[in-house]
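tool_call: predict_structure(chain=1)
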Amino acid sequence: MKKHLTTKDFVVLGLMTAILLLMSYTPLGYLNIGPLAITFNVIPVAIAAIATGPVGGAIAGGVFGLTSFLQCIGIGGTSAMGAMLFSINPVLAFIQRFVPRLVDGFLLGYIYGFTRKKTNAFISCAITGFFSAFLNTLFFMSALILLFGNTEYVQGLINGRNIIVFVCVFVGINAVFEMISSTILTGIIGSALTMAGFVTNPFVNQNRGLSTGRE
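tool_result:
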């Protein structure tokens, strides 16, 4: 596992950050449906984690989380839920929007490292893409329930239902679509970057003395 970022890592991380900002401030990053939004920003976070490891993944996740929080105050789009949470407690709204994405990106670096040790580039990248969307939804909704579960707003959304049922109904097809799109696109993009030499396999390098990472 990478312990520091190389110049090549910074290039990839800078590119993914630029893509995240572009997607966050244009309709490319979100498809708003009711109070929730289908987000494609989990894909650059996954790519950053694949190419640069946990630290780079955390940085990209942090950028994603920051842009998500800024939508609570109408910067780069508007989130109906975010605006409501911000009006209830701005500090908790920041934590709920920022921390899950940062932790998601950090963990993705380890998920890719573990799966790349076991399988080829496409499958490991696809698995990382799936978990990018899955963990984003899991952490986001867990933080929502933990930090705002007792508020009148969230209690109105829950409407007396079991918490698990509420989460499944609330994220619904949005989460499924995010997971499918992130799995496919991250697998394709990540394996293409591997072929281009931007992503190396540290386990191959350690065990066989190779540096290209194109296996």
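agent: The domain at 7-199 is CATH 1.10.1760.20 (Arp2/3 complex 21 kDa subunit ARPC3). Proceeding to next step.
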